[in-house]
Known about the structure:
Distance between the termini: 38 Å
Order of helices and strands: EEEEEHHHHHHHH
Structural class: alpha+beta
Shape: globular
Strand order of the largest sheet: 1-2-3-5-4
Largest sheet: 5 strands, mixed, barrel
Number of helices: 8
Radius of gyration: 16 Å
Amino acid sequence: MYDYIKGQLTKITAKYIVVETNGLGYMINVANPYSFTDSVNQVVTIYLHQVVREDAHLLFGFHTEDEKDVFLKLISVSGIGPMTALAIVAVDDNEGLVNAIDNSDIKYLTKFPKIGRKTAQQMILDLAGKFVEAPREIGKTASTKTAGNAQLDEAIEALLALGYKATELKKVRGFFEGTAETAEQYIKSALKMLMKG
């Protein structure tokens, strides 16, 4: 089992990043690939969790150990797979997540993709009181670089990869059309909008 990887960040896509170390490029699934934009071609440390399936060996990566810990708690719940857990982590609001679990707020929890009422109830049953401290923020501060609609397209693609439906993202695109932000900023803002409903 891997704990972390330290190497050069060589590639960013809507679904994953690639970190090269000792001549090997590791494909790592992350919650918001564009939060790594400022680190391209730099040495980064990514905390890892490996998932071994019959058809694939997958790596999931995190900025911090706190972020990884939230992910691990989520996948311990019956009905929550790694990609669903990644979509929950992507919202970047652990405090809201923990409050929803501890206060049995099913309405909040079912706003995440692929989380129905039954799974939300299971989350509350399994995780209530398990988060001693809710990390207030995970990930990195948004970049201030200017960007155009290509960045919005990349953000929409990343949100689709996290499990959000094209119909849900229609209003997101309409809201942000004509603005100039980075893909990371679009993703963060869109996730907040989607959670508010």
